Amino acid sequence: MAEEVDFYPMWESLGMDTKAHDMLLGAVGQMYGDMFLAQQNRPQACDYLNVFATNLHSGEIKEKLDAKETGAAKKIIGSFCLYVPEEIVTAAGGIPIGLCSGADFATSEVEKHLPRNTCPLIKSFAGFRLGRVCPYIQSADLVIGENTCDGKKKAYEWFATQKPMYVVDVPHVRTDETKQMWRNEIHRLAERLEQETGQKITPESLHEGIILANNKRRALQRLSKLRAADPTPISGLDSLLLTQAAFMDDPVRLADAINKVCDECEQRVAAGEGVAPKGAKRILYTGTPMAVPNWKLFNIIEKSGGVVVGEECCTGSRYYKDLVAETGETVDQMLDDIADRYFNIQCAIFTPNHGREQDVMQMAKDLNADGIIDCSLQFCTIYEMEAFGMELTAQENNVPYMHITTDYSTEDEGQLKTRIQAFLEMI
């Protein structure tokens, strides 16, 4: 039997509020049990997620701190968005991690620094910092932000008073000129990371970084295709958590775990086995990202008799849909290849953004979705406004559609359940 590790000295060394952290872990642990462990006919390979969730604030962060201690890595580099290329962080000797931003915490303190009507994701990462309950934020040597939405770019001005920050400038229109601007921005980011870690990016290290990230994407692409089966072999909850893990877990270990899940799912598809009965209403999710532990909506959908078969969002297909070209020979070539791949992410910050509508309709077709649920976090203007065009596109393609606005609280769960059950009955 493995010896139990005491992580309190580690948390205390990171300046965490251990009492508040205990409360957070207790609440998230209860939530995980009620949502994930209560699932029926779950693939056995998804037990990996149980280990991941258990170790998320303990073993996972200890691995990263140990890598710094032993010299296997130079710095821990945190981010809140997939526009921060993990390939470059890895190549410079850093450890890329997604930072906590999926639950309400220390809201009253946050509202002393940020407006009350700020989106839950922004208030969440501010709350995790002020409450000192996220070991990833506490341990990050540098946080890389991005000027995606107005709320984030202004919140980063305050966050820079809390942690060392570097903000990348993401274009909001797609032209040849802005593509070159973005390439230049990626080159500047590489230089900043080299300064931070003291390690020069080489063709070898950058190519290795590209392969590591692409292998995770290939595994998630494989899983996505398997979800087209009816009955689908894996739940939306488990699929979402596997993608969320891609921002935090060891890349080699996670890619291997996802492929093992796929191996089992292939067997389940061949045997006609699934997590929901054949003919269960199949939902494609689109909208704002879902950071750990924001699992509320998927839990409601699947406990209401539906099954989520795909996610068009930053914690979904946008993360894994496209690979970085692996043919570059020089650092400059590979940095341009990385920039070009990230430039094509269909985020709602872009105008116009018809590519997202096309991606959603193509995913609905490929995954045999019966309906689309488009979700915006409260006060997220860009996704709220895009919902009008998304609804028209769904109508033109005869795909049932519903838009939801919510936050991280449980106060609207009853209302959401009623609306979602009615939507499932309608389709």
Overall pLDDT, averaged? 97
Q: What's the number of domains?
A: 2
Number of helices: 19
SSE order in H/E notation?
Answer: HHHHEHEHHHEHEHHHHEHEHHHEHEH
The tally of strands reads 8
Summarize the main sheet.
Answer: 4 strands, parallel
| Morphology call | globular
Helix content: 40-55%
Instruction: Tell me the span between the first and last alpha carbons.
Output: 50 Å
Structural class: alpha/beta
**In the CATH hierarchy, what is the class of the largest domain?**
Alpha Beta
Strand content: 5-15%
What does this protein structure show overall?
- The chain has 427 residues and is α/β, with parallel strands linked by helices.
- The chain has 2 domains: 8-200, Rossmann fold (3-Layer(aba) Sandwich), CATH 3.40.50; 207-322 and 349-426, Rossmann fold, CATH 3.40.50.11900.
- The chain has 19 helices and 8 strands.
- The chain has a 4-stranded parallel β-sheet, with helices on both faces. Strands 6-5-7-8 form a 4-stranded parallel β-sheet, sandwiched between helices.
- Strand 3 (142-146), helix 9 (150-159) and strand 4 (165-168) form a beta-alpha-beta unit.
- The protein is globular and about 55 Å long.
- The N and C termini lie far apart (50 Å).
Summarize this structure briefly.
Helices cover 54% and strands 10% of the residues.
Task: List strands and helices in order, with pairings.
Blueprint: H1 8-13, H2 18-37, H3 47-55, H4 59-70, E1 75-79, H5 86-91, E2 94-98, H6 107-110, H7 120-131, H8 135-139, E3 142-146, H9 150-159, E4 165-168, H10 176-197, H11 203-226, H12 236-245, H13 251-271, E5 282-287, H14 296-303, E6 307-312, H15 317-320, H16 331-343, H17 354-366, E7 371-377, H18 381-396, E8 401-406, H19 413-426
Parallel strand pairs: 1-2, 1-3, 3-4, 5-6, 5-7, 7-8
